[in-house]
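Hi F.,

I've been meaning to write this up properly since the lab meeting, where we talked about keeping a consistent format for the predictions we share between groups. The idea is simple: the sequence comes first, exactly as it goes in, then the structure tokens exactly as they come out, then a line or two of notes. No screenshots and no reformatting. I'm using this chain as the first example so we have something concrete to point to.
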Amino acid sequence: ATALGTLILAVATFSAVRSSNMMAKVAQQQLMVQLRPVLATTRREDPTLKVNFGDTKWVLVPGGGAVGEVGPGDGSQGPDTTVVYLALGVRNAGSGIAVLHGWRFFPGWRRDAEHAPLEEFQRQNRDLYIPSGDIGFWQGAFRDTEQAGYDDARKTIEAREPWTVELLYGDHEGGQRMISRFTALPHTAPATATATDTGADASTDTGAGTGFIATASRHWNIDRPDPR
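Output, unedited:
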């Protein structure tokens, strides 16, 4: 009788511990979902974003769009160095704050099934946070003529050809990293806003010659299994 009672108690204890562990796991998963960001492109009706590159350069990114410009800047080789400026409007469709970690530029419309290796991503020099359910922007620049990818980026933007960027980001706790791929396609429609409308200098107006239509095509999970 004593042995049977001990066995029953052990089984009950095991069941209680297992149930507690399952509940803790479910609670942790729910918490992670609440912190998880997912980036997509902005909508055409979203407001135009005014983006500064840390120098005198400003660009206007219309809703659903991206910007690629080539011009003088404060590159590492002096003010006469030609700089490639890139910007993209993004919307956080997830439930957590998105923190951008890095980016990888590709000339043309990239359709590979796999993302670039993590070691190839360039680290963001500026902290970019995208609130949940809100819009923001990504920005990147090639300032050094000796930098890997500079020539490809400059030729692509000057020729008004499509380009692709993969963004590495995660939640504000530093986890749940993801990579999302965005493609920018050139268009000739006039800008939806002028520099005067947003208070920028007229020389920085984003016109038809620099605007691109943005589209998202692929998403990859880094720190957890992919959904597909």
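Notes:
Residues 190-208 have pLDDT under 50 and may be disordered.
The CA atoms of residues 113 and 218 lie 8 Å apart.

If this format works for you, I'll send the rest the same way.

G.
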